[in-house]
Specification:
The protein contains 14 helices and eight strands. The protein has an eight-stranded mixed beta sheet with strand order 3-2-1-4-7-6-8-5, with helices on both faces. The protein is α/β, with parallel strands linked by helices and about 375 residues long. It has a single domain, classed as Spore Coat Polysaccharide Biosynthesis Protein SpsA, Chain A (Alpha-Beta Complex). Helix content is about 55%, strand content about 15%. Helix 8 crosses helix 12.
Length: about 375
């Protein structure tokens, strides 16, 4: 039987942390221990955590990144497994129970489930919701079938502690520790697993300011890992290298796809509205089937999922800008010694209480995730928050 410790790094999370800890308390297979790292918070994060009966660890100063906070807690873990959960993530009640069996295979070193958005209040959250539904029901299953997942999501990953300690802990050399560890372990011949039936709800940026910070960190971190690992991936994990190469090519060619309707209008006699309609229709045909499957798979209302589809073009535009910035900075300027790249970890959400969910919002999130896992109609997932 596996034992498991949960690490929750938290900086100024007094309003959002209760929902995370309450979800852990509802797990059908409860963790053996929950460690909250109160990373020099200036609010009541530590007090809130202590009130939930968990162990609170307080570094003497702010550690500056999630990986460093997690590493601060790692020596306190004595179980064979470690579950890293973000302080704004709510797990399904059976998350741990669903993930644990994959570790019966001794080759498995890290595993994570499906991530969905907790809130769909703004255009940015709705666009991210669409991205998650598409990615976790199209890209991720294909990668899982090929035994080459691109990443085990850092907001809800389970690690084999012995492997994690032997590796030196959560990697701090890149700005995205989850991708770094997922690639490093697969290069070393270990197995990373996507567990589709395990569901986690993450709080994503609610406005453009914080979306930009999160996307810049994600894209810069991806390119840092490309710079660090691509050669070894080609030699030792060619299928994963293929996914990575395709992702880079998608970034490089994305401007051509976005410019297609305007180029056609300029080069032919067709009016711009007609070429835009053709372009949008083609993109819809490529995007809609996985979303329809995701709606059925998760018990979501189809109309609610399709309603959010136009919002994804707003988040895609932000993704494109920062993906290209990451290519230039991390894959060109850093190797030339003209930039240090992104080294400062910034959260994708504000620390202010206004950005945090209310108690009623936490309850709606719990109801939504239960409905989604049970396969019941859960259109309220998209509407409640």
């Amino acid at each position: 039987m596996h034992t498991i410790t949960v690490i929750v790094p938290a900086h100024n999370e007094e309003e959002g942390l209760p929902a995370t800890l309450e979800s852990l308390a509802r797990e059908t297979v409860p963790p053996d221990r929950v460690l909250v790292v109160d990373d020099a918070s200036t609010d009541r994060t530590g007090e809130v955590a202590a009130a939930h009966g968990v162990t609170v660890l307080r570094p003497p100063r702010n550690l500056g990144s999630k990986a460093r906070a997690q590493n601060y807690a790692l020596p306190h873990c004595t179980t064979d497994l470690v579950l890293a959960v973000d302080a704004d993530t709510v797990l399904a009640p059976d998350y741990i129970e669903t993930v644990l069996p994959v570790f019966d295979d001794p080759s498995v070193t890290v595993a994570a489930g499906t991530v969905r958005t907790r809130h769909t209040r703004t255009v940015w959250e709705r666009g991210r919701s669409t991205e998650y539904l598409f990615g976790f029901h199209w890209h991720r299953p294909i990668q899982a079938r090929a035994n080459s997942p691109m990443v085990c999501s850092g907001c809800c990953s389970v690690f084999r502690r012995a492997d994690l300690v032997a590796f030196g802990g959560f990697p701090e050399r890149t700005i995205v520790e989850d991708m770094d560890y997922t690639w490093s372990q697969q290069i070393a011949g270990r197995t990373a697993v996507y567990v589709s039936d395990a569901v986690a709800l993450a709080a994503d940026p609610e406005d453009l300011t914080y979306l930009r910070k999160q996307v810049w960190r994600w894209m810069a971190g991806f390119c840092q890992n490309v710079r660090l690992h691509l050669g070894a991936l080609i030699r030792r994990k060619p299928l994963l290298a293929l996914w990575v190469t395709l992702a880079v090519l998608e970034i490089v060619t994305a401007p051509l796809w976005w410019a297609t309707p305007f180029a056609l209008a300029a080069l032919t006699d067709r009016p711009l509205p007609a070429t835009l309609g053709w372009w949008a229709g083609t993109d819809l045909l490529l995007t809609a089937p996985p979303l329809l499957y995701a709606a059925r798979r998760r018990g979501l209302r189809t109309l609610a999922v399709l309603r959010d589809l136009p919002c994804v073009y707003a988040t895609k535009a932000v993704n494109l800008v920062y993906a290209w910035k990451a290519l230039v900075v991390e894959l060109l300027l850093v190797p030339l010694g003209l930039s240090k790249g992104l080294t400062v970890y910034e959260k994708g959400r504000a620390d202010t209480p206004a950005a945090q969910p209310t108690a009623a919002g936490r309850e709606r999130a719990a109801q939504a995730i239960s409905a989604g896992r049970a396969g019941r109609p859960a259109g309220a997932v998209a509407d409640a928050s």
